[in-house]
Specification:
By secondary structure, the protein is of the alpha/beta class. Helix content is about 25%, strand content about 20%. The radius of gyration is 24 Å and the shape is globular.
């Protein structure tokens, strides 16, 4: 039998419903996640950035025959470093040979470097950055000013110095630091965590695209990708300094899986790292620019892109992208936000399913015809669910209500036409999933159908 809760006026709700329908309230913060976030080390991040700088260049097409310079030396170091974090991480190369095309000037062996921390379930949460670098004539500034950077990397000499400390040594250092603290935390995560260092980002997100393409073909359940690219500098090239916020970009529309993931990052980042502000951006990425999170959304996986608040364009894609142009303290804050979001997500139950077998949202106006009646499928491990809603014009959830271990709820006299609803799954320790929204699939020409006409005699 389906258990349900009818939500009525609060006084009635508290007095008139069986207590079993309501979860024991757990504190918002899990002390184990607080401890994990507290393990993020600014000094370790700085050490990784300095090490990455020593490879001179990590251009995807740079030489692989030197033990200390170029992409071959860099990927070997990443592999060994991840191995050093302990036996729980499964470290491997994800290798492809990319044919000459576009910005790939010759057939090139490309290796993503990844570490998997197995969880109880196969669903995967990624934390990522790209370890390849590029340096081009003027850092790409002229191309960026023209709002078009296509082909810029073609001009790059693969063996020219391209230290890439911020782009994207910062994202890689963050990914390594999370691999270290998660694998050494002793926590038993429900989700499988993947710490991924992509390659060939600068040639058109190729390493990420190849991996995402394969994941889709193999039906790998990727629940979330937290991609970090240029997250280490707090001083804009125009002199504006912001060390207290991070931008998070996500592909729409407004209730897409990536936007729900972005809202989740903001919600849980604020709780565990209140000193840092997550600024959500309702666009796929910065103007005319891209990053690896887009490769995942293109293959149907929820993904967001973290970007520092104020960029210095003159120190990107340039030999001047060096250690003195980043702030390890700022990078550490961004790493803490990632850690809080990834840990909460990995400990929480899977998000509830809020569609029927035909993909239609399980929301209706029953029983009165003017109520909001929500149904969802139970998530394994959930002991409660939280309903969210907001006006149908506006991006942020405005209201939330924790209900018990039930699979439906009714909000009387509440118009489902004027509000957007969603529901998350919550476990006994308070870990919450991403919100599943009740939305109609976008209408398409196929859905609309063609209007049939009969031929009429032409007017004379
Ligand atoms: Zn980058």
């Amino acid at each position: 039998m389906t258990r349900a809760v009818r939500v009525v006026a609060l006084a009635v709700l508290l007095g008139g419903l069986p207590g079993a329908a309501f979860a024991q309230s757990a504190p918002d913060l899990d002390p184990r996640i607080v401890a994990l976030v507290g393990q993020i080390s600014q000094d370790r991040l700085a050490g990784t950035l300095k090490k990455l700088e020593t490879f001179g260049t990590r251009n995807t097409m740079s030489s692989t025959d030197s033990p200390s310079r170029g992409i071959g030396a860099a990927r070997q170091w990443l592999f060994d470093e991840l191995k050093n974090y302990g036996p729980k991480l499964q470290v491997s190369y994800d290798t492809y040979v990319i044919a000459r095309q576009g910005r790939i000037l010759r057939d090139t062996e490309a290796r993503n470097v990844l570490a998997v921390l197995p969880g109880r379930s196969p669903r995967r949460i990624y934390v990522s950055g790209h370890y390849d670098t590029v340096a081009i004539a003027d850092g790409g500034q002229s191309a960026r000013n023209a709002a078009g950077a296509a082909g810029e990397a073609v001009r790059a000499d693969p063996d020219a110095t391209a230290p890439g400390v911020n782009d994207d040594g910062s994202g890689v250092a963050l990914t390594l630091e999370l691999a270290r603290v998660f694998s050494q935390s002793g926590l038993d995560f429900d989700a499988t965590l993947v710490f991924m260092c992509h390659v060939a980002e600068e040639q058109g997100l190729m390493g990420a695209k190849l991996h995402a393409q394969k994941a889709r073909k193999d039906a790998v359940p990727i629940d979330a990708v937290l991609n970090n690219d240029i997250v280490g500098n707090d001083r804009g090239g125009n002199g504006v300094v912001d060390s207290v916020s991070i931008r998070v970009y996500s592909e729409g529309p407004e209730d897409s899986p990536s936007r729900e993931l972005a809202r989740f990052v903001q919600r849980w980042g604020a709780r565990y790292v209140p000193s840092h502000h997550v600024r959500l951006m309702a666009r796929p990425d910065r103007f005319s620019r891209g990053g690896d999170h887009t490769a995942y959304t293109q293959y149907g996986f929820p993904a967001v892109g973290f970007r520092e608040s104020r960029e210095n364009f003159t120190r990107q894609h340039d030999a001047r992208d060096t250690f003195d142009g980043v702030s390890p303290a700022y990078l550490a804050q961004n790493a803490r936000v990632n850690a809080a979001a990834a840990a909460t997500l990995a400990l929480a139950p899977p998000r509830p399913v809020v569609v029927n077998d035909r993909g239609q949202a399980t929301i209706d106006r029953a029983p009165s015809g003017y109520d909001a009646h929500l149904r969802w499928k139970a998530s394994s491990g959930a002991t409660a669910y939280r309903i969210f809603w907001r006006e149908a014009w506006g991006p942020d959830w405005q209201h939330e209500l924790l209900v018990g271990n039930v699979t439906e709820a009714t909000l009387p006299d509440t118009l489902i036409d004027d509000l957007i609803f969603g529901v998350s799954a919550v476990d006994a320790s308070g870990h919450e999933s991403v919100v599943s929204p009740y939305i109609a699939p976008p209408s398409t020409a196929v859905d609309a159908g063609d209007v049939k006409t009969v031929s009429a005699p032409s007017a004379r």
